UniProtKB/TrEMBL annotation:
InterPro entries referenced in this protein's UniProt entry, alphabetically: ARMT-1-like_metal-bd_sf (IPR036075), ARMT1 (IPR039763), ARMT1-like_metal-bd (IPR002791)
Cofactor needs: Mn(2+)
Domain of life: Bacteria
Classification of source organism: Bacteria, Bacillati, Actinomycetota, Actinomycetes, Streptosporangiales
UniProt-recorded name of the protein: Uncharacterized protein with ATP-grasp and redox domains
Stretches assigned to the Damage-control phosphatase ARMT1-like metal-binding domain: 22-356
BP terms from Gene Ontology: DNA damage response
Amino acid sequence: MSDISAPPITCAEPGSFPWGVFHERHPALIRRIEQALPYGPAERRALAELLRESRHDLVATLPPDAPDLALWQVWGKEHFGRPWPSLPFLWSESYFYRRLLEATGYFTGAWQGVDPFAPFKRAELAGDAFAADLAALDARESLTEAEREHALLTTALWGNLADLGFTITATASGPTGALAADDSAALWPLLDGGLVHVVADNAARELLADLALIDHLLASGRAGEVGLMVKPHPYYVSDATATDVLACLARLTAGSGEAARVGARLTQALRDGRLRLWTHPFACAPLPYRDMPDDLRREFAAAKVTVMKGDLNYRRLAGDRHWPPTTPFAEVTGYFPGPVAALRTVKSDVVTGLTPQTATTLDAQTPTWRTAGTHALIQVRTGTGAGFSRGS
């Protein structure tokens, strides 16, 4: 198994992608939130203070009445009181979003339970692009089984480009269809009618693509049961919660043709237990999956394969570190307690599992390819992992 001596990615270097997230993306996000929801002076002051602290000051702890204080005292014990830029980017970006929820009163007071990202999710659900995605479901009926499976997998993969956090500052107009790695041939043999876990990333358009894929896995018998892991509360801008799943299902069932049929089948699958929504506090942890608790390890170990969707899940799966891009994917995920697949549009620095020729060519011809959302990865590790030894 690969050691973890590769240095963690931080946002300390001016001009780097992580630095841009804190100095460009986060201010733009706060402006959009304040325009979308009528937060009062107290919430606006708290948001401004979060921006100031995260760029210029030391990391402050959560308030004493925070419902998840005990968890964060463990997750952040090495980081509180230190400068934000010196910390691992995975931790600091995650904690920024936790603090954003605190600033907007998500956990307490009159704004309790109000998702600060809900206006963006609703707009995407109501948009023309989502309507076109619903209509496109009809086209798959004319495809062969192999063509249908390829289309569904590809759509679920590139659906990750609909990440609302990414599009706040992105300039890419859309996917190029370029795969930097493609292990899809190794994925399908793992689907033999057992349990499949899908770890969701974003709501709305990406979630629609994920649900269409899940519907096919269940309807075709590729999976006997699917566990769709969502976030227990809002996290990054468009991360999917159970509420978002229900909203997406409502749009499906209110549609016509194949959209309505998919919605009806998935609704029934929820009722009879073949599709199960589940979550875990670690879904919103600022840590790599290498550090997951044993109960979550057991959950993943029970599946024939766990499908990790999106860029953040990839960062947590591989470890958000400066790996040489040719570091084998199977090595950096060797700790995972079962077969695992990553479907990821590349939108941040960490990359593993490339051939030397691919890595050299991409870095030479398109230096920004890791953060532009123009390339994607389908990577699969078919082994059973190293068991439950935390940090192995």
